[in-house]
Amino acid sequence: MDRLQAMQVFTRVVDTNSFSRAADTLDLPRASVTTIIQNLEAHLNVRLLQRTTRRLNLTPDGAAYYERCVRILADIEETESSFAHSGKGPRGKLRVDMPGSIGRMIVMPAMCEFHTRYPDIELMVGFGDKPVDLIQEGVDCVIRVGTLQDSSLVARRIGVFQGVTAASPQYLERHGVPQTLEDLQHHTAVNYFSSRTGRIIDMDFIVDDRTIEVKMNGPIAVNDAEAYLNCGVKGVGLVQIARFMALPYLRSGELVEVLPQWKPLPMPISAVYPHNRHLSPKVRVFVDWAAELFERCPLLSGQEDAEDRCLPTSTSSSKTVKHGTPEVAGTADVVV
């Protein structure tokens, strides 16, 4: 029996709470995962897992063994990574997830740079706005926007963006340009509802260092980024989006900024990964590269008035609504 592989399989079964999901994330047949766990229990002469029809539970011996396995596997990975610079560098499959707009406009155009720098890392990149269970879905790292809450995750801030409130010229011709927040009660908006909770995400504005939320009436609510921005461009109502997403439309005149004196609350952009996992070399270099990439984009590094040289000049469709130092965190409602 390969005891190192058995430890890896056992910890993955515990992390995903499923033999099937563990098999999928390890690219092993489910029968092989079952056999490996059975052989491990026979070798140790203890029961590690209590299996029920709904879930798996660690026995006291299993819990103790799991904690030691996590430390051993982390030590092995750290030892191997110490030789990375004298060898071929980080390698292996790396699964990441990020909002579609950030992926399409910022990350993917620079992906050749990452591949040239780290040719032995095989990236699997997923795009989506919904929260991802990193452990159960076998995702190594996600890029997320907004306040982060889940204590089972660690977040490193890699950027920030400033929102903008905008509308199409056609909409403003019909309804006028709002001059104060009170004027918004006479306007309509394209509303965005959370895919996770189903609630409408209100617009917000910073007034005298306070954040004021404004509930807007609107003829339509969507939970798709491209549909949201497209409705704004077509004149359905006001929208509140990240400036880096609105910039091509502001440049072309298809959107006009309104209420510029009251900006939406800036949102942090974070790379998020599980806190109970050793930060592997491939995750570390991806996070470092992403932070470097965002730093090169003025609109994503806190320079809100900059003309961003790293964004495309052609129009594209998407939307961002609310949603450093590593901190314990998890993902709040986010649309990017």
Automatic annotation (TrEMBL):
GO MF annotation terms: DNA-binding transcription factor activity; sequence-specific DNA binding
Keyword Transcription: yes
Keywords: DNA-binding, Transcription, Transcription regulation
UniProt KW DNA-binding keyword: yes
Region (Disordered): 305-324
Segments forming domain HTH lysR-type: 1-59
Similarity annotation: Belongs to the LysR transcriptional regulatory family.
Protein name per UniProt: LysR family transcriptional regulator
